[in-house]
Each structure stands twice: as C-alpha cells, then as structure tokens.
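Sorry to interrupt, but I need a hand with the structure work. Leave the record below and I will have a look:
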Amino acid sequence: MAEMFDLAIVGAGPGGYVAAIRAAQLGLKVVCIEKRPNKALGGTCLNIGCIPSKALLDSSEMYDIALHKFAKHGIKVKEVSLDLAEMMNRKNDVVKSLTSGIGMLFKKNKVTAYFGTGKLAGGNRVDVTAEDGSVSQLEAKSILLATGSESTELPFLKFDGHSIVSSTEALTFDSVPKHLIIVGGGYIGLELGSVWRRLGAEVTVLEFLPRILTICDGEVAASVHKILTKQGFQIHLETKVTGATVKPDKQVVVTATAKDGTALTFTGDKVLVAVGRRPYTAGLGLAEAGVTFDPKTGKIPVDKQFQTNVPGVFAIGDLIDGPMLAHKASEEGVAFAEMLAGHKPHLNYDCLPSAIYIWPEVASVGLTEEQVQATGREPKTGYKVGKFPFVASGRAKAMDDTDGFVKIITDAKSDRILGVHILGPRASDLIAEAVAVMEYKGSAEDIARMVHGHPSLTESVGEAARAAWLGMALHA
C-alpha cells in the first residue's frame, strides 16, 4: 500500500520547500520529493544559483576593494593575492549550511523528505525512483509541481561542461579564465561576469538585442552599460552569435555577426551561455498524466489557485507564468499552502521586487518608464519622474560608492507610485521601502514625509520621492 499524504510536492527548491513547511505548519501531512544528488535540499537557488553566486560576488568584491580602494581609505597592504580554492570552499560552506538548515526545518515541522525522481503516475499518485533504481509509490490528496528551471542551451552552442558552460559550471571554475566570453546580456551573465572580472579575467559580453538588461528600466540599463564598460567589460550589442569551435588547446573561437553584417570572431578560454532559463519538466510525466503545458516555453497554465487542468495537480514558481525569481516561487508556495488549508492569502504580483547583484546593484519594483508610457500616459501630464543621484548622498560619499541614482515614477494626478528603480549601493535592500509603500498604494509624498535616518542611503529614496512629488529635491 502506498503511503497517503495530504500534499505531495515534487521539488525542494524555494517554492517547494517553503510550500512544504507552510502546509505542515497549517496541519497538513506533507511529503517533499527531491532528485538532487547527495540529498541536497534547496533546489537550484541554494545549490547552484542565487546563494553560491552571491557568496562569490561578495568574496570577489572584497578582493576588488582590497586591490583598488584600500589605499584611498588610508589602508596600506603590501601584497594582495587570490586563493581561489579557499574562496570556493567558503562558497561551498555557505551552501552546505543553508541546505542542511532546510533539512532541520523539515524535521522541526514534520515534513517527510523523499529523495529520488518524482513522476506523476495518474490520479493522486506520484512514483519516486531512487538512485538505485527502486521505485516508491506515494499517494496524496493534492500534488504540487515545483521543479524550477534549467539553463537554456543553444543548438549551436552545446554545453560541454568545460569550455562551453552554463551558470552551474561558471560557479566552480578551478582557475580564473584569461578571457571569459558571455553570450547574453542578462542579469545572470553580468553577475557571473562581475565575479570573474574582479578576479582578473577579461570579460566580453555578446548581446543579440540593442541593449543589455532588457527587463530593466531603459535609463537604468543604459547607465549600467556605461558603468560596466568603465569597470572593464567589453560589451557588443546587436551581435548575433552563430557558433563556436573548441580548439585542441581548449581555446574557444566564437563566431558572430554584427548588425551591419560584418563577420566577427572572439577567442577565449571559457564561454558562458546565459541566454535565459526554461521550466524543468523532464521526467515529470506531464503528458502521460494529461497536464497541459506549452511545448515551446515549457510553461504550465494554472488558475488563480495554481491548479493545472488536471484536478488535484498544481504548479508554482518557474513552471508557471511570471518572472523566474526565487522569492516569487516562495511566496507562491506560501499562498498555495494557505489556500489548500482553507485560508485566503494575498499575493500582489504588481509589487514583486527584483534585484541584480552587480556593483552597484540594481533593484526595482513596479513599472518601468517604458511600461508607463505604454499605458498611454504622457510625461508630466500623465506621469512624473523624480530622481536623486548617489553622488549627492553624504552616506554614499563616505562609502566611496557614488555611482547610480534612485528613480521614482508616479501618476501625475494622484501621486501614486507606479515604479521605483534603484541603481546604486545596496539597492537590493533599499527597494524594500518602496515595496512596502506600493503594497499599501502609497504616494511619493508618503515616502517624502517619512523621516529617513542621516546619514543613510535611504535618504536618497526620500529625496527622489520629494523630486517626484514637488519637482525638486533638497540636496540636488
């Protein structure tokens, strides 16, 4: 007889494990199935994504500061050297600590963990195939699919795990590349490019579109381009990569075509393909179970309760529409668990923040200026923009981090905030204030009238709000 649960979750990433914990807290009997080797919970985010990349970003930032900023602060260091193996060990320790922490949370909340590949077996059953090939059958009143996503592979740039790599391998290089070529100008490529550039690599970015960071506000993206170029990135826009050849000496020759049709070649020792991610559905048995999904995008359509077309089968996170963000998946997991338990949770996708951990950081919430214009609003009469540069911030000057600005977009008539975009130090933390105010349908005046501590980076958010509300800031 298969063991019976209230909820079976396939995938223990940020969506799956959070849904499991919240459902268990609400009294449901929960099992969470994870296929990752070594019984590592946490999914892509904790194991080979968000967490290890941020650990390397912080470590490489410290190295860069020691090389280029210590002297300006009166700190004299005779010699700075890189121990990449130790840096990687620290990254691995951070990952291990957090993934083992999820295991402890599962035990605390009485969530059963099954390790193996989960597959829909029809009705309310899930088959779990362990590494040794043995199969366990689980039954649950409800089944939640939360398997996340994987790096998109290009047919003419197949991953080989060594010379042509995905973000996974780019987190584990055993030496600093002399020349890292990145295909794709999105946040994943730029974050990993920042790590290796700081550690000494030459970095070239090849982007097919006319700009990098297409998800960002256009003004922010343009400023990021200038800043990264100043940092040493070589960025080629409107460049179509056509193929790559790995030579016997492991050098990779990438061929591309410029906008005007000119043939281009770039030679490096590593090529990172970072052109996006797609839902991970391999082996889930969607077709056999009758679950509808888009064969082109891999996305699974769901209703407002996250239910697929098959009763009792649900999906969240990267498997469904919306940005592929860990915190989106987590909040969907919470909302799903609470709905399953009979609660009425609130999840506002209009106030979903995003962050890019280059330096200076980029963070945003709400509409970009281009999206506001697409609603039919005209500048000044339909919407207003308030900006404040970090170069005018006392705290930013004290930190010696003055690149960037805060940009707040409001409705011209109501002053309600439509979008906030921050390019600057600790933008990922600063954006939380804007999220809170927007969640309660607040205005620029609301932020401007808040008392912001001095000297602090948050003052820049208040100044940008004042500029949007009154048309002028105090210190710029």
In short: Residues 256 and 264 are 5 Å apart (CA to CA). The domain at 351-470 is CATH 3.30.390.30 (Enolase-like; domain 1). The first helix runs from residue 16 to 25. The chain has three domains: 3-151+278-347, 164-275, 351-470.
